[in-house]
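Supplementary Methods, section 5.1.

A reviewer requested that the exact input to the structure prediction be made available. We therefore reproduce it here, unchanged from the version used in the analyses.
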Amino acid sequence: MKGRILGLDPGERRVGVAVSDVTRTIASPVEYIDRDVGGHDQRLTDLCTEWEITEIVVGLPVSLDGSEGEAAERARSYGERVRSLTGFAVEYHDERFTTVTAEHALLEGGMKRKARTSMRDQVAASVMLQGHLDRRRYAAGERNDEDA
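The structure derived from this sequence is encoded token-by-token as follows.
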């Protein structure tokens, strides 16, 4: 299947947003949606239209031992809301360490604290979505030379 995948990393205050390319190979950060400001639902549906989304992946915060707690329940509830709102199937992907990975990448890039704060959620969404894309490609037997 082809078409762009929308990656959402829901947090308490913001939802990081990332989008795949049409070949579902590369994830890119797009923006974050502030949950405290109105218009979340409209922005989400607008993003689906703008990017011609065909599928949605929501980050699932699981514990180090793989168990799901309250945060995972909130993410699943959010995913159900997104599914109802958009009509797209929603998959979940383990988002452990995505925020840490995003923060390290932004620090290595020399980004100042204020700029990192506004970028962190969308970069974390991109890291999560890239993991989802890579896992799918690997499961389908599509490896590039670097994977061998």
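The radius of gyration is 15 Å. These observations are discussed further in the main text.
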